Every structure is written in C-alpha cells, then in structure tokens.
Amino acid sequence: MAMLYGGFVLFILAFVIFASTQNFDLVEKDYYAKELAYQDQIERIIRTKALPEQPRIEYHAEDKAIILHFPESFRPDNIDGTLHLFRPSNARWDKIFPLSLDNERKQVIPADWLIRGKWTTKLNWSVAGVEYYQEDMLIVP
User: What distances in angstroms separate CA 11 from CA 7, 14, 20, 79, one per listed residue?
Assistant: First the structure.
C-alpha cells in the first residue's frame, strides 16, 4: 500500500512540475491595439447594417461574373474600397479587387477563374471618410 501511495505522490509531483513549466500566452502582446482595431470593425459593421439599403454581391453563372451593386443613395465617384474574395478552404485562391463602379453604381468582375464551392465576400468601403464593412457568403455552383 505504501508503494501505491508513494507512486501516486510521485505522479502528482511530476505532473505539477510539468504543468508549471508550460508557457500559456492567453493574451497577445499588443492585445489593446488589436481590441481597438476590432472595435473599429464592429462600428463599421453597425454603420453598414444601419443603411436603408446595403450593397449586393451576386454570382452570375451564365456570364461567369461577380456583379456588385451599390444602392442609389451612393454616388459612384465618391466610393473607395476593396472587395476581398476569401476561400475558407484554401488561402491561395483568395483575391482582392479595388472598387471601380460605373455610373450605375455597379461593378462586374470576370470570374471564370472562380472555383466551385463556398466563398466569403468581404466588402470594405468608405464614403467621405466614413468606413463600412459587409461580409456575405457566396456559393458558386
């Protein structure tokens, strides 16, 4: 019985020593700056959701194109930003396009390179210094 108790004590001591030597960084070094940046992102999303009408992103299979539509309340020459097509399963297929809207507040992006499956669209834009952000899912059949 003494050997069993001694073995248990040695096991607990070994486990305590092992656990105390592990390094757990639960917070990043610049966590405060990253928290502020994340708060800015939340504010962009809130501003976007507060709009009466939000931009639409559609995939047209017959044209093999992505079409981005902005609401009539925006002037096309006043919008600056990017559209990021994000592929969750493979980062090599990610692409970023600068916004370049026509007079109808529309942008057509040729998408013959687009692989079937789930894509995430991340639309960042600003109008007169006010920033917006919209994230949607795009399914390519």
Answer: 6, 5, 14, 65
Q: Are 66 and 111 in contact (CB under 8 A)?
A: yes
- Give dist(CA 114, CA 118) in Å, integer: 10
**What string of H, E and C letters represents the secondary structure of 49-104?**
HCCCCCCEEEEECCCCEEEEECCCCCCHHHEEEEEEEECCCCHHHCEEEECCCCCC
Q: Round the average pLDDT of the chain to a whole number and report it.
A: 88
Of the candidates 53, 86, 45, the one whose C-alpha atom is nearest the C-alpha of residue 69 is 53
pLDDT higher than 70, residue 26: no
CATH placement of domain 54-140: 2.60.40.10
Is the pLDDT at 100 greater than 90, yes or no? yes
Domains of the chain, by residue range, sit at 54-140
